[in-house]
Amino acid sequence: MTALPPVARALARRTLEVPEAAQPTARSVGGGCISEAARVEAAGRAVFLKWRDGAPADFFDAEADGLDRLRAAGLRVPRVLGHAHDGRCGAIALEALDEGAASARAMADAGRRLALLHGRRGLAPGLARDNYIGSLPQPNAPEPGGAWLAFWKQRRLLALSRGLPQGLRQRLERLDPTGVLAEPEGGCALLHGDLWSGNLLCDREGLAWFIDPAVYAGHPEVDLAMTRLFGGFPAAFYDAYQEVAGRFDREHLARCDLLNLTPLIVHARLFGAGYLSQVESVLTRFGA
């Protein structure tokens, strides 16, 4: 049985609505590399609980906000049951899901839902609040003039690369994406923002759920690019996406490679210098 910190234990009791004398059971589960997680059960009910010691006060509030935005926009995400912070540790309680094997049906449904989300254009780049990608602060204030490309370079490449070697940051400054990337037609769309394979969960009923977002408005290919970063999603996902959004053009994969500078930079900061060579390789390929 997993020991829960006080704020997480109190949140579990509140969301499960169990009396003080009851003893919920907590079983550790994979929660990613940033937070700890457990499935907590009592009186025949269950909740998925995540917590992080030393989390900023708004850390799980930002996650809850992102999930609520995605749900309102039509993605299937776990319901937020509550979140709390005691000045030292933060926690969030989510609808518990019974994880199952990925299926073509689930991946196709995910692809269609993401395409429908991306089809709702007309947003300005960024978000009305800042949030987090992994444990890194993610600034979302728009750039003067409201251009997507300026936002991507300033708020993503340069802002998120702070702390990396100065020479690498100078190369990022020199990068000119305009020969490869363009402003999104019709404006930006709401993005999941951190859509690698670990953040798409399939349940035992064959449904796909989007989890752990880093939400903001941007170019839809940002999400598509990250799905390809660590091995890619199954073909059923991309086929279904294209049924809704239209076929990818010949330059799609090249644009994805460039857009993936952002998650590679994030991984270099969070998980070590092993990712720096990949960042440098992309910069070299695109002339910086």
Q: How does the major sheet shape up?
A: 5 strands, antiparallel
Treating each run of at least 4 consecutive H or I residues as one helix, how many helices?
Answer: 10
Helicity level: 25-40%
Mean pLDDT score, rounded?
94
Strand order of the largest sheet: 1-2-3-5-4
Strand runs, count: 11
Cα-atom radius of gyration? 20 Å
Question: Which outline best applies?
Answer: globular
- The proportion of strand residues reads 15-25%
Give the SSE string: HEEEHEEHEEHHEEEEHHHHH
CA distance, first residue to last residue: 51 Å
Q: What class would the helix/strand composition place it in?
A: alpha+beta
Uncertain regions spanning at least 5 consecutive residues: none
Topology summary:
Elements: H1 6-16, E1 25-28, E2 36-42, E3 45-53, H2 59-72, E4 80-85, E5 89-95, H3 104-118, E6 131-133, E7 136-138, H4 148-160, H5 166-174, E8 189-191, E9 200-202, E10 208-210, E11 216-218, H6 221-227, H7 235-245, H8 252-259, H9 261-271, H10 276-285
Antiparallel strand pairs: 1-2, 2-3, 3-5, 4-5, 6-7, 8-11, 9-10
